[in-house]
């Protein structure tokens, strides 16, 4: 039996196991700290529905591939995917890069097939095969050329939640598990996240600018704006001043909201439940939420009482009774009293 107490990085527990980084590789521990899958993956996430996605890196970022393992660490869906999500409600989002034909002319009569940067972008977008696979690795829903999983830039995002998945096709909308459009894409929704407890965050407003991404290539991007929350009809029911990259999610009846420069919590009618007093606030899980005060993380309960004092450099949510916290350069796990688990 091998027990490691300090990790280079540690993720939350899910289905009795947690991915941890030891050295430069990821493996898995159980809830007593025993290493149950040896560190051998370049990236690992959280088990969901008995499977986890893991990454095998190639010589460069364009050669890295994701596959899926079981709880024995066995690869059960081959590493074929440039992008992959966790499984949720029986499906996972994946993208398989296309192959750029030689002498392809698409820009002002210029052959772009030898341009490494642009070649990579085109192979991941216009030429890619993408959609949602089942647990046998077969495509159940394929997305069209100009339709994308709206959360593909968020490595933590699960595809389906409460029967719906966010997609981007001009604006953002939602499909069901048959691929049918349930909430039509709205141009004003330029970012969206999953439904949680009947509400979904949508980002509105902001301005369109032109951003240089690499070696002179430019792409129009939208910046600014703030998050609002829609119901399953697509109606905005809660507005927030929060403009962060990743929005708070409704959880356990409460939602973190930014009022002025501070974070508090409201209920789903928009009524304030915990006064704004934090520099940052997370999502509630198992009755607790991580909060940031004066550059340190602690945990509050649903009444806003500080139950674990702010003393950590980073903190993840509680899951299965434990939370990963960072002290200095190392990660460990605490229980709900704030004591180290091992």
Notable traits:
342 residues; mainly beta; five-stranded antiparallel β-sheet; four-stranded antiparallel β-sheet; 1 helix; 35 strands; 3% helix; 46% strand; globular
Structure, explained:
The chain has 342 residues and is an all-beta fold. The protein has one helix at 116-124; strands spanning 9-10, 18-22, 25-29, 35-41, 43-44, 52-56, 65-69, 75-81, 83-84, 92-96, 105-107, 110-111, 129-133, 139-142, 148-149, 160-161, 164-169, 171-175, 181-186, 191-192, 200-204, 207-214, 217-223, 226-230, 236-239, 255-259, 262-266, 272-278, 280-281, 289-293, 296-300, 306-312, 314-315, 323-327, 330-334. Helix content is 3%, strand content 46%. Strands 15, 16, 17, 18 and 19 form a 5-stranded antiparallel β-sheet that branches. A 4-stranded antiparallel β-sheet has the order 1-2-3-4, with no helix packed on it. Strands 5-6-7-8 form a 4-stranded antiparallel β-sheet, with no helix packed on it. β7 and β8 form a beta hairpin. The two termini are 14 Å apart.
List the helices and strands and how they pair.
Blueprint: E1 9-10, E2 18-22, E3 25-29, E4 35-41, E5 43-44, E6 52-56, E7 65-69, E8 75-81, E9 83-84, E10 92-96, E11 105-107, E12 110-111, H1 116-124, E13 129-133, E14 139-142, E15 148-149, E16 160-161, E17 164-169, E18 171-175, E19 181-186, E20 191-192, E21 200-204, E22 207-214, E23 217-223, E24 226-230, E25 236-239, E26 255-259, E27 262-266, E28 272-278, E29 280-281, E30 289-293, E31 296-300, E32 306-312, E33 314-315, E34 323-327, E35 330-334
Antiparallel strand pairs: 1-2, 2-3, 3-4, 5-6, 6-7, 7-8, 9-10, 10-13, 11-12, 13-14, 15-17, 16-17, 17-18, 18-19, 20-21, 21-24, 22-23, 24-25, 26-27, 27-28, 29-30, 30-31, 31-32, 33-34, 34-35
């Amino acid at each position: 039996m091998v027990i490691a107490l300090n990790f280079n990085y540690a993720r939350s527990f899910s289905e009795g196991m947690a991915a941890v980084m030891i050295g430069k590789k990821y493996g898995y521990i159980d809830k007593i700290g025993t290493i149950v899958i040896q560190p051998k993956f370049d990236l690992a996430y959280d088990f969901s529905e008995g499977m986890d996605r893991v990454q095998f890196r190639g010589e460069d970022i364009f050669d890295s591939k994701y596959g899926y393992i079981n709880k024995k660490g066995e690869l059960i869906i081959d590493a074929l995917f440039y992008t992959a999500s966790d499984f949720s409600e029986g499906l996972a989002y994946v993208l398989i890069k296309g192959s750029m034909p030689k002498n392809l002319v698409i820009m002002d009569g210029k052959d772009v097939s030898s341009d490494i940067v642009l070649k990579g972008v085109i192979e991941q977008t216009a030429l890619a095969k993408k959609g949602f696979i089942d647990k046998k690795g077969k495509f159940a829903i394929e997305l069209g050329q100009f339709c994308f999983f709206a959360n593909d830039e968020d490595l933590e995002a699960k595809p389906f939640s409460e029967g719906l998945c966010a997609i981007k096709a001009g604006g953002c909308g939602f499909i069901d598990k048959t691929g049918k459009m349930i909430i039509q894409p709205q141009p004003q929704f330029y970012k969206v996240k999953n439904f949680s407890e009947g509400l979904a965050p949508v980002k509105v407003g902001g301005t369109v600018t032109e951003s240089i991404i690499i070696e002179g290539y430019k792409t129009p991007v939208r910046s600014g704006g703030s998050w609002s929350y829609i119901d399953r009809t697509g109606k905005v029911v809660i507005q927030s001043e929060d403009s962060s990259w990743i929005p708070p999610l409704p959880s356990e009846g409460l939602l973190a909201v930014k009022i002025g420069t501070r974070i508090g919590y409201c209920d789903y009618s928009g009524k304030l439940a915990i006064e704004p007093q934090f520099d940052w606030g997370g999502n509630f899980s198992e009755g607790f939420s991580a909060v940031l005060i004066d550059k340190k993380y602690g945990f509050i309960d649903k009444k806003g009482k500080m139950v674990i004092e702010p003393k950590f450099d980073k903190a993840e949510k509680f899951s299965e009774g434990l939370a990963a916290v960072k002290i200095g350069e190392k990660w460990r796990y605490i229980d709900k009293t704030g004591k180290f688990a091992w």
